[in-house]
Amino acid sequence: MGSEPASRTPRYAEILAILRGEVASGVFPVGATLPSEAELCQRFSVSRFTIREALRRLQSDGIVMRVQGAGSRVVRTTPASVFVQRYRSVSDLTQYAEDTHLEVQSISDVELGEGVARQIGGAAGETWCYVRALRRADVSAAEVLAVVESYVPRRFAKLAREVESISGPIYAALSSAAREPIENVEQEMQALPAPVHVAAALGLTADAPVLRIMRRYSAASGTLIASFNWHRGGDRYIHRASLSLDAG
Amino acid sequence: MGSEPASRTPRYAEILAILRGEVASGVFPVGATLPSEAELCQRFSVSRFTIREALRRLQSDGIVMRVQGAGSRVVRTTPASVFVQRYRSVSDLTQYAEDTHLEVQSISDVELGEGVARQIGGAAGETWCYVRALRRADVSAAEVLAVVESYVPRRFAKLAREVESISGPIYAALSSAAREPIENVEQEMQALPAPVHVAAALGLTADAPVLRIMRRYSAASGTLIASFNWHRGGDRYIHRASLSLDAG
DNA sequence: AGTATAGATTTAACTGGACAAATTGCGAGC
DNA sequence: GCTCGCAATTTGTCCAGTTAAATCTATACT
Question: Which residue in chain B has the smallest CA separation from A80?
Fold first, then answer.
């Protein structure tokens, strides 16, 4: 690498591979700081630009975190992902058109049982605000697309009562109210026999197969909202996703 | 921008914002090529490094595609994603531990009906290789985790016959055989009543709710493999995903 | 012991320059 | 009209250098 660059592999890519290998083999374990850019320039006899190209890609891989004044700290030992699925809009995530209408049926305080508590990130015995609603294509549509059961922490009960009039996704309004960004969304999907109230709302026979999608939107302080969305089975509702190779 | 940089906003970020605005407002529509780096350096009176930082981020946003020798072509007018879900391994994607065992029950040539053809990216009337298999935790396990029905183009029939002995994911082996990278994965999930052969294999009553996940792995030439995975309903199989805000 | 400040260190932003590699368009030849 | 080769153009890789901004550590003061 003190000589001419190999015609095929850029120098930064060679250095990147070496650094990846050293992280993976434990030379630099999680928590360790890599040598500084200046030290790496000396070690590999290349310009700072070349080192920065390698380090930039290590950061993009999620392997290091680069901090001005501090250095490059290892945060994981393997690349962060293989496939990636990008959701470009709320309607991509929920698979409703953005102008669907949520009609609230009831709002009440409920004490969480163990099962629900575990799923929504609360604790058994806690009191949360429970909202049952029907989702339709628009205000005047007769057909129910989905039954939606949401749990919101008690401190947001007031906001939950206004859910029909909120424009944009409710999780964004809750994020604003909490003054915290949504940090992640957990999603669980399973096939279930339709409970009585779901079968009735969706016009199904009792115990017909339905797809239930639970989504939990969390900030640093915990769950802001968790919703159970009950959809018809078969071709009446197909949850689609498109993944691409991660270009990291 | 010919003067001192604003203390807060890097110059490349200002240029990025301007270029984003010009793309969004139609000055550069999808398909158009942005001015060259050299022209942008002249326009904004900055060095090529600064322009490249802006363009690099436009590419990372998914807004342009930069091609050596050709320029930066606009491929979309808005940033590509809001939420992102990363799959770090095959087991993340399929939600099987990596050492599960696939036991082939039958392999045959089938002529595609319209419905299946549409789902798997083939054409009605085409002959594909059909593989029916059972997935178990390991070779000696008695319990069937899932019923797997796969469709593979006829040209890969030989490889399909060796599916039990392939180490690593079958789609990677097919990608090698085709000498093409997997470009994307389409996934469809729906709740269905268990067909007879699925109910029998999973030990369910006829018409019990099951979750069917179809995954289609495609290269530029088309579908390399499409598999229908039939899972038990209820808490016996929960398909989980974790999404984070896209740091784009 | 706790806090503030100064200096050293490290990465971020930026300049100007060079050569290599890939693409595109044009002209010539068949 | 089609194909091939060459030149112009554009982005990729890389160098050497500078100043700015952020972090960390050590020292001094209360």
Answer: B88
Give the strand pairing for A83-87 and A144-153.
Answer: unpaired
A138 and A15 in a common domain: no
**Residue A68 contacts B where some CB pair is shorter than 8 Å:** no
Other Cβ atoms less than 10 A from the Cβ of A116: the count is 19
Q: Which of the residue ranges A200-209, B109-118, B162-171, B207-216 would you say has the lowest mean pLDDT? A: B162-171
Task: Note whether B241 and B128 are same-domain residues.
Answer: yes
CATH number at residue A217: 3.40.1410.10
CATH of the domain at B64: 1.10.10.10
SS (H, E, C) B128-185: EEEEEEEEECCCCCCCEEEEEEEEEEHHHHHHHHCHHHCCCCHHHHHHHHHCCCCCEE
CA distance B30 to B95: 37
Nearest-CA residue to the C1' of D23?
A: A69
Residue A37 lies in a domain: yes
ipTM of the complex: 0.65
pLDDT in tens, A176-191: 777 766 778 888 999 9
Cα B112 to Cα A246: distance, rounded to the nearest angstrom: 32
User: For the packed helices A48-60 and A11-24, what is the interaxial angle rounded to 10 degrees?
Assistant: 50
